[in-house]
Design goal:
about 375 residues; alpha/beta; 6-stranded parallel sheet; 3-stranded antiparallel sheet; about 15% strand
């Protein structure tokens, strides 16, 4: 049970952006059916694998029933139309024009089912010179300038499928808004999220500060990375991170390390940003006889923002991560014990429960779902 209990979602998407958004809806209580071709979702081939299940496929598709349909056949199309008739939300991330060629044009679907919410992810958009191109996350990092904002001299990709997952979150947000609107009007609507637009919007608050005020005088080349955080390695070889963003925090840090001369030497944020390499080197040298825990206690006692720079293994056992109960170990049939994160948005005060289902095997629920519709397996 969850806030979306009773909401039926049909996931016609592939790879990550739509499937992961559908999993977020499943975590909130929606009933989700994922439709795949006989070849299966592309993520099913990703490694690492365990007992025939890709970890990335599992993570993007928890909480769903999975069926196989041939959408190029009459039987497959009849089956998907029967599923749509029972759905509250239909999600897809095909290239522009594919839905229409399959006889699943979204405008037509909503005209036949006025309360239906349709949701699409587009890479570049529905129109424009790039609209029909095949696109993946790294391409969006390039076009959106995300790679350039990491290092404008030598653009660097973020080592994370960030635009894809941001698009998933934006899509889930849009669907929830459409469900609220339907509650007021009784009518469905179309939700469209573009990976390119999502990436640019995500960059804007901090990385586009120098491009915000059009009438401002030119400032020349300005470093976009405005962070003043210090990454330090303590004497025990473990890493930590601390930051003194305000002048008051800087004074506290200088007091804690007994360097009052640094208050006047690096008085402002700009001074500390320009000298951050020097500051970092000197701080690292100061703590070569201290353990990470000792350094963190020194900073924490002085009310300076700080924390361990965890490896993945350290994160899993970090006391704050455990206190948040954000990662659970769940036994799944055929897979054994699986680690799963709790929803990052929690509604209500009831303890979080994992989704009833893990990720489906290819076609695992085809017979079951079609029988519910009174149909034979295509």
């Amino acid at each position: 049970m969850g806030p979306l209990d009773g909401i039926n979602v049909l996931d016609l998407g592939g790879v990550l952006s739509v499937p992961y958004a559908a999993t977020m809806l499943a975590e909130l209580g929606a009933s989700v059916i994922k439709v795949e071709s006989r070849d299966g979702d592309q993520l099913r081939g990703n490694h690492p694998m365990h007992r025939g299940m890709s970890a990335m496929y599992y993570n993007a598709n928890r909480g769903k029933r999975g069926i196989v349909l041939d959408l190029k056949s009459d039987k497959g199309i009849r089956a998907v139309h029967a599923l749509i008739a029972k759905a509250d939300v239909v999600m897809e991330n095909w290239r522009p024009g594919v839905a229409e060629r399959l006889g699943l044009g979204l405008d037509e679907l909503r005209s036949r089912h006025p309360a239906l919410i349709t949701a699409s992810v587009r890479g570049f958009g529905s129109t424009g010179p790039y609209a029909g191109q095949r696109v993946y996350d790294p391409i969006i990092q390039g076009v959106s300038s995300m790679a350039a904002t990491q290092d404008e001299d030598t653009p660097q990709l973020v080592t994370n499928v960030l635009p894809d997952k941001l698009t998933s979150m934006s899509l889930a947000q849009g669907i929830l808004a459409a469900l609220v609107q339907r509650g007021r009007t009784g009518r469905g609507d179309h939700v469209e999220v573009t990976m390119l637009d999502t990436a640019i919007s995500f960059l804007w608050p901090d990385m586009m500060q120098t491009d915000t005020f059009v009438d401002a005088p030119p400032t020349g080349k300005v470093e976009r990375n405005t962070r003043v955080a210090q990454i330090l390695r303590a004497g025990d070889g473990k890493w930590l991170i601390c930051t003194a963003t305000t002048n008051a925090q800087w004074r506290l840090l200088c007091g804690a390390i007994e360097r009052p001369d640094w208050i006047e030497k690096f008085p402002g944020l700009v001074d500390r940003r320009e000298a951050r390499t020097t500051i970092n080197d000197q701080l690292t040298a100061m703590f070569q006889d201290s353990t990470r825990d000792q350094v963190l206690k020194l900073f924490s006692d002085a009310d300076i923002p700080c924390g361990p720079l965890n490896t993945v293994e350290e994160m899993l056992t970090d006391p704050q991560v455990q206190a948040n109960d954000v990662i659970r170990e769940v036994e799944r049939p055929g897979l054994g014990i699986v680690r799963e994160p709790a929803p990052h948005v929690r509604v209500g005060t009831e303890p979080w429960q994992p989704t009833r289902l893990g990720a489906p095997r290819l076609g695992e629920h085809t017979e079951e779902v079609l029988a519910e519709l009174g149909l034979n397996v295509p």
